[in-house]
Each structure stands twice: as C-alpha cells, then as structure tokens.
Amino acid sequence: MIPPNHSMADGSGVEQARALQEQRGCGQRLRDAREAAGLSVADVAARLKMPVRIVEALESEDWARIGAPVFVRGQLRSYSRLLGLPVEPVQNASGVAPIEPTRLVAHWRTPWLQRIADQVGGRLVYIVITALIILPVWVATRSHLDSGDELAAPLDVPADKLAAAHQADASAQPAVREPSTVVASMVPPRQSTPAAAPASAAPELSLRFSDDSWVQIRAKDGSTLEEALLKSGESRSYPAADVGRVVLGNAKAVEVQRNGQAQDLTPFMRASVARFTVSSDGALAPVSD
C-alpha cells in the first residue's frame, strides 16, 4: 500500500510536468514528440511529403522560411497529427493567429438611393461619350453638305420633286446666287399675254406651260432674265433680240412659239431637258459648248 504522502507527491509532479510542457513553444513540443517516437527529421519529411527545411523551420519556429500564416498553421496541423499531439494547443503555442475570412456585405444592404445614383451615373457617362463621338461627325457632315450645295438644281429631276426641294431650301435659308442672278431676281418677271405679233413688230419668243417646269432664261450678255419654277398654265414672252440661251427642265410640258408659230424642240432635247440658243430673229439653234 502506497503511503498517502507519496500519492500527493506523484500528483504534484504530473501537474508540474504539464505546466512545464505548456510553457514550452510548439517547436520544442514537436521535437520532443519526434525524438520520443524514434523518428528523424528526414523520416518526418518523407512521411509528410515536405522538404526537410520545412520540418526544421517548424521545430525552430522560423515562420519566415515557411511563408504565409495559413501555410504555417497547415504544416503544424499535419506535423501534430503525425506525432499524435493535439492540434489546437500546438497551433496556439505557435503564436500564429488564424486567418479570418473576408466579411461579405450583401447587396441588399447598400442604400437604394446609392444604387439608383450609380445606375443613373453610368447611363449619363454612356450618353456623354456617345454624344462626344456623334456630334463632331454630324457637324463635319452638315458643313460638308452645306458647302456642297449648288445654285442650279439638276434639271433632269421631275418637276414636282424639284418644286418641293426649292420650297424647302427657300424656307430654310436664302440661296446663294451669282451677282447677276441676284440683280435679275429683284426685277419682276415679265408677263405678257401672248398675242399674234404684227408683221412689222420685232420677233418675239413665247413660252406656254401645260405642267410645272424649271426654266432658265439667259440674255445674250450672260445675265439672267428669269430663273424659276413656273407652274402649269403660266406663260412668258420675251423679245427675241434679248434672249441668248434657254434651258427647260420639263420640256415636254412647254410649248415654244416664235412669232405665234410653234417650234419643234426635239433636236434640242436630252431626256426631258431642252437646251437651245435664240438668234436675234427668234430662230432656235442647238447649244454649242
């Protein structure tokens, strides 16, 4: 039978041994457990499939040779399990704090005003960028089209489309004309009622319109006598001595008379446009360019 004082002495020794072990670092614990198991550093490295330098760093607590804290705690866990030591006390003795996961913030916690502001801001940026790209292209195209406009409209265009185009241009901005054209346009067009000219009167050139037609009447000196879109039912008369060149856009709808006698425009027509010159006696002749 063991005396009572001997049992108390043994219990006190165990507690002292346990306290001494807890005061030691994790590296010393691992080394003592490895030596007690009869294993060398190389044996541990082979069983854990890790370099020998990592085993030595664990026993010497040289965490800088291992790397990030998450790797240190992982290697300590593997080493402790191999030697049969409790994992948590060994990791706590290392002084390496566990890695806390990144805190995630749910999207619904973002204020709804901020979400709306972010969405509106993104759309405004997109609109501004689009405008910065499109606006210079539109300005360049607009200025090019404006500079490319010509005074004389194509005479081969149908009369109704030509009239609509000229009315739109006239309402938008005044047309640019040559000085002679501007002066001629200020003079009211000459209108007269066609009548049979006396035999002794000067030759006269008359135009009657059964449909809309664009006309251009030039004097012999090159000035403009008339340049306009004349409507169906209108008529014009000019002294033959004043007329030098005539262009009719819708020639099929225009009846040309010389001293009351109808003139054949077929020799002067190309498509629906007729171009001819007028001599002092009213005779028509092809245009010689």
Portion of residues in beta strands equals: 15-25%
- Tally of individual helices: 9
Q: What is the number of beta strands? A: 10
- What's the SSE pattern? HHHHHHHHHEEEEEEEEEE
Question: What would you report as the Rg, rounded to the nearest angstrom?
Answer: 54 Å
Assign the structural class, choosing from mainly alpha, mainly beta, alpha/beta, alpha+beta, or little secondary structure. Answer: alpha+beta
The main sheet comes to: 6 strands, antiparallel
Shape: rod-shaped
**Portion of residues within helices:** 40-55%
Distance between the termini: 147 Å
Assembly type: single chain
Mean pLDDT over the full residue set: 77
| Unreliable residue stretches | 1-9, 178-187
Summary of the model, kept short:
The chain is an alpha+beta fold. It contains 9 helices and 10 strands. It has helices at 4-23, 26-36, 41-48, 52-60, 69-83, 87-94, 112-148, 159-172, 179-186; strands at 204-209, 213-219, 224-230, 235-239, 243-248, 254-258, 261-262, 269-270, 273-278, 284-286.
Question: What's the topology here?
Answer:
Elements: H1 4-23, H2 26-36, H3 41-48, H4 52-60, H5 69-83, H6 87-94, H7 112-148, H8 159-172, H9 179-186, E1 204-209, E2 213-219, E3 224-230, E4 235-239, E5 243-248, E6 254-258, E7 261-262, E8 269-270, E9 273-278, E10 284-286
Antiparallel strand pairs: 1-4, 1-6, 2-3, 2-5, 5-9, 6-7, 8-9, 9-10
Structure description:
The structure is a single chain. With 289 residues, the protein is of the alpha+beta class. Among the domains are: 14-94, 434 Repressor (Amino-terminal Domain) (Orthogonal Bundle), CATH 1.10.260; 163-193 and 202-286, no CATH class. It has helices spanning 4-23, 26-36, 41-48, 52-60, 69-83, 87-94, 112-148, 159-172, 179-186, and strands spanning 204-209, 213-219, 224-230, 235-239, 243-248, 254-258, 261-262, 269-270, 273-278, 284-286. Strands 2, 3, 5, 8, 9 and 10 form a six-stranded antiparallel beta sheet that branches. A hairpin with a 4-residue loop joins β2 (213-219) and β3 (224-230). It is rod-shaped. The model is unreliable at 1-9 and 178-187 (pLDDT under 50).
